[in-house]
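hey can u run this one w/ flavin-adenine dinucleotide bound, need the structure tokens asap thx
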Amino acid sequence: MTPETSPERHIVLAGAGIGGLTAALALSGAGFRVTLIERNAALSELGAGIQLSPNAHRILDSLGVIERLGRDCVQPLEIRLNSVRAGGLVGRVPLGDTAVKRYGAPYCVVHRGDLHRALLAAVTARGDIDIHLGAAVADAESDDDGVTVEVQGEDGASTLRGDALIGADGVWSAVRRRMLRLPSAQFSGRIAYRALIPATHVRAEDRVSSSVWMGPRAHLVHYPIRGGEALNLVAVVEDDWHEEEWSAPGDPEQLLPRFADWPEAPRSLLQRPDTWLKWALCDVGPGTIWTEGRISLLGDAAHAMLPFMAQGGAMAIEDAAVLARSLTENADTPAALLAYERDRKDRVERVMRTARDNARTYHQDGVGAMIRDMGIRFLSGEKLLHRYDWLYGWRM
Ligand SMILES: Cc1cc2nc3c(=O)[nH]c(=O)nc-3n(C[C@H](O)[C@H](O)[C@H](O)COP(=O)(O)OP(=O)(O)OC[C@H]3O[C@@H](n4cnc5c(N)ncnc54)[C@H](O)[C@@H]3O)c2cc1C
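ok here u go:
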């Protein structure tokens, strides 16, 4: 199809998280005028890690973000699958050079703050993206000619006019709930505790590899970040606490008893952090639409998912690239937004289903855990990786 971008088309983005910043880069690179509105007065990210699989890495590389991360990006050699029932290792999924050879891009792990800084530096370097901090998108109305966006800033309310509004405003999206009247993401009955520890005194293999420990009604993921200087810990437990917060303090006294009868290796890691942050895990059900007229959604606002495939951020990054392509290929903005949603839906729903399946698999007990461990042992590491070719090998 012939590109029909008209340079004056103006896209308003709500939210400068991973999805909003990547979309700003992709859209402005494709010739659109971009306004990015972020509720927080200062841009920052949680002190935690994030995994960047090859499908996301490829897009960030094409947008000039990866070169800004430098040695902050760590390529784990493998994912070590451990079972509490078996007392240790049951499988190893090769990453490192194997992932590069198979998918043409590495599987990396990085500190969220470093990723956010690299994205922001790339956005700032473009010089043509209009960023408004400390301003929240409060309402929007779509008509035949454009969209009117109401913005609530520290100095009061103002309006701006654009060709489309994209809600990249996260799991508790106001654009999703207020402007598109879609149901909120639902609490999954699981919470994630996150912490960083220095990588001193951790086992040599833990400084170069990612690990998952699967146990009854809980699991632990850890991987090295910041060039291997720190270890990122994510402990997931079944619980009924849920609040709309990114960074509620987590009490080690509530967390540690859940792991009291686990093997020494994961317990000794869990005992090290003085402070934890906790996060209620939510997802949206399959089948919901996320576009109406000139308003659409991206990232967690569109399809919040459980983090058990480590793909929420990656899907937001893919959304951004597909959105820019769709708007470039179609001068009719509402039609382009519908085409973008159609293009993304099957893939993100498959990832969401796989993440829900992993939630069940990781937390098995008794016979279920025994069958899971036998299944992992039966498959070679390469075969375990190849099951995800559809995900990591994705190209636009
Ligand atoms: C424990 C855990 C581990 C995870 N691990 C991984 C992983 O390894 N790999 C991976 O790919 N993903 C992972 N994820 C998922 C990933 O963190 C999210 O999918 C990703 O951050 C979503 O990005 P986003 O830009 O859509 O939303 P967000 O990052 O939430 O950004 C939304 C932005 O919108 C702003 N905002 C909110 N309301 C408004 C408004 N009204 N107006 C303007 N701005 C507004 C917010 O301040 C925020 O800056 C994990 C998630 C969890 C919980």
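The pocket of flavin-adenine dinucleotide is lined by residues 14-20, 37-40, 50-51, 136-137, 168-170, 174, 192, 194, 234, 279, 299-301, 307, 310-314, 316 (CB under 6 Å). anyway lmk if its weird
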